[in-house]
Amino acid sequence: MARPIVRGTAAWKYFGDFRDGLLAEQVLVLQVAHPVVAAGVRDHSDYTSDPWTRLMRTVASLSIYVYGGAAGARVEAARLRALHRTFTGVADGRRYSALDPAAYAWVHATLVKAPVDAQRLFGKPLSTSELSEYYAQMRDIGLVLGVRERDLPRDWAAFERYYDAMVAGFGVNPAIDQLFETIRTAPKPVKGLPDAWWRRLQREHLFLVRATLPPSLRATLGLPWTDVDQRRFTRFAAGVRIASRPIPAWARTAPMRWVGKLNVWLRAHPKVYRALVRGDGPGARPDL
User: Fold this and answer.
1) For labeling, which of 81, 165, 236, 250 is most exposed (least CB within 10 Å)?
2) What is the predicted pLDDT for the residue at 139?
């Protein structure tokens, strides 16, 4: 049993760091690279028509795991499993389920890895002791979410071997192509944002996906990457690192922590939630 997630522990400091958001699209690409996840997204997700609502629901759900307390995490886990139990279909002539153990474990793995990569790229890499504590805490969350214990590597070194082996086995699939197209064509999240600015942001999002994907998968997908691209990303990462260095951990995680607490409260007051937004609660749509 890992140390509880409280202020100052590794998962508390790093899971909700605002710099993790720079890897949001990369995480989605990695998730849909798994063929079962790709099939589930194709058949049951509305992210292509309403990406911003889907994103907000996903963030709301994620925030509860780490910052909503143990009871909040258990309730959210039960809700998600009940929701995903209905997501079944046929892909390549074979039936699939969104609760396929290997696919379910992989989605969790991408969420575990992203904050570590964000610190490596845009902050200060986690120390060996921090990695050990962080992974143990996120492993416990995986168990709460219903990931089978045998699908959760015992320590960080074993997790990295598992993660690399999974990435090496992925190939091109239509869901990845659709995701890139959605990033290219997503409507503006704010109407007042100038079109030229939004087009520039879309290009930057695509660039960050190429920059942060594992190099082997980037090559498999045929995404170009040049020395010029690498120098550009190095400058960008350095700028983020310098700008965020003075910000303490409590401030870097504050937005996600507030969202987590708010959503735990909304779970206890469903009438209030339904008066604010449509649906049955944060994350009501598929989180694949």
Assistant:
1) 165
2) 95
Q: Are 144 and 77 contacting, i.e. CB atoms less than 8 angstroms apart?
A: yes
SS3 content of the chain, % helix, strand, coil (to 5): 70, 5, 30
- SS3 state of residue 83: helix
Give the model confidence (pLDDT) of 2-22 as tens digits: 888 889 999 999 999 999 999
* DSSP secondary structure of 113-173: HHHHHHHHHHS-PPPHHHHHHHHHHHHHHHHHHT--GGGS-SSHHHHHHHHHHHHHT----
- The answer for residues whose C-beta is within 8 angstroms of residue 232's C-beta and 6 or more apart is 207
Q: What percent of the chain has pLDDT over 90?
A: 57
| φ/ψ of residue 192, rounded to 5 | -75, -5
Q: Which of 58, 41, 47, 50 is nearest to 173 (CA)?
A: 41
Tokens of 23: 């890897």
Determine the residue type at 126.
L
- CA pair distance 186, 117, nearest whole angstrom: 25
What's the pTM value of the predicted model, to 2 decimals?
Answer: 0.86
Neighbours of 7 (CB within 10 A): 10
3 state SS of 90: strand
pLDDT at 287: 39
pLDDT digits (tens, 9 = 90+) for 251-275: 999 988 888 888 777 777 778 767 7
Region 102-129: what's the mean pLDDT? Answer: 95
Give, for 97, the enclosing helix (H) or strand (E).
strand 94-97
Q: Please state the rounded mean pLDDT for residues 52-77.
A: 75
Is the dihedral angle over the CA atoms 209, 214, 219, 220 positive or is it negative?
negative
Indicate the length of the chain as a whole number. Answer: 288
Residue 130, CA distances (Å) to 110, 127, 248 in order:
18, 5, 17
pLDDT at residue 194, rounded to an integer: 93
Mean per-residue pLDDT of the chain: 86
